[in-house]
Amino acid sequence: MCGICGCGSTEPKQAHQFVLSHGHHHHQHDHDEPDTGRMVKIEQELLGKNNAYAMQNRAYFKEHNIFVLNLVSSPGAGKTTLLVETIKALKDRIPIAVIEGDQQTEHDADRIRATGTPAVQINTGRACHLDAHGIGHAVMDLGVQDNSLLAIENVGNLVCPSSFDLGEAHKVVVLSVTEGDDKPLKYPDMFHAADLMLINKTDLLPYVDFDIERCIDYARRVNPDIQIIRLSSTKGENFLAWTDWLLAQMQALA
Amino acid sequence: MHELSLLENVREILESHAQSQNFAKVTRVTLEIGKLSCVEPEALRFGFDVVMKGSLADGAELVITEASGIGRCRQCGRQSVIETLYDPCAACGCPYMDVVQGAEMKIKDLIVI
Predict the structure, then answer these.
(1) Structural domain boundaries of chain A?
(2) Contact A138, A19 (CB under 8 A)
(3) pTM, to two decimals
(4) Which of A33, A42, A189 to mutate to test the interface with B (most CBs of B within 10 A)?
(5) Superfamily, domain A51-253
(6) For residue range A221-251, what is the model confidence (pLDDT) as tens digits?
(7) B81 in contact with A at a CB cutoff of 8 Å?
(8) Could you give the domains of chain B?
(9) What pLDDT, in 10s, does the model give residues A192-226?
């Protein structure tokens, strides 16, 4: 068991670098209801603990110059294929590591490892999202190199992962044209939280009823600042725009 | 169901305050949930009793106050109430709004004995 954070994991000792230092809580007392109990003001964020771990992760990533992306989408939008092709395109230029999140199986991590890239799989079990604490441990397990790209593939789910900051530089939402073009309105939280939307599988546009301009309009309504790249991971269409974006962001941060 | 994770956080926060605030039982928990947060109050109510069972808030009442969503228009700069992240400006109809209020998910206060 992790002795400081008490998380029940058996990770190596370095993992403790990630344990958050507990901040001070501020309280006020009201004693206006003595007969039925007293009121205690709390005013604490429900996600405060996750956010504290995320801040700690972010500080670690900054110190080690690790550029971190949190990839989110519904299941089947093509995140793993996108990652495999990204690794093929960039692995000779930058060190890359991957954290895979799924409820069950090692399938996705196996696909990444087949490219020769280190990957660790987090099985979330009943949980529908990755959290910042688990990411801290996974980073230590992986031994992510300094000056590298760390891609986190979140659990396929357009709802829950939007609330959980992992310490990433950017959330990237992947939407494939085989889904509805109104997904940004149906699942606005995720598109609101993302910095970049990748519209994937554009090679299939002739076969599906997907209005790409409408999709972009909807995404901008929930997030006027969202950046958008259309591409096909499997056919390579416009893939350079994505890897160029990635390298430019890495450079800007370095 | 990230509402369950959030409720587990609620329980942990209560427990972390029990000693310093000197209480052994919580009879009421008040949460403030913003209209634009991605939390469904009904799902919180549904899971609350289950998650609090056996804790010091076992049997406690859950009160959820909803903070309304407010957006600021990128075009005219005016603020208006918004129900969703994609509502246009009520004053000029511009579709591009920045969220000013409504994303919060907080424990406000407790009644303790």
Answers:
(1) 51-253
(2) no
(3) 0.88
(4) A42
(5) P-loop containing nucleotide triphosphate hydrolases (3.40.50.300)
(6) 999 999 999 999 999 999 999 999 999 999 9
(7) no
(8) 2-112 (3.30.2320.80)
(9) 999 999 999 999 999 999 999 999 999 999 999 99
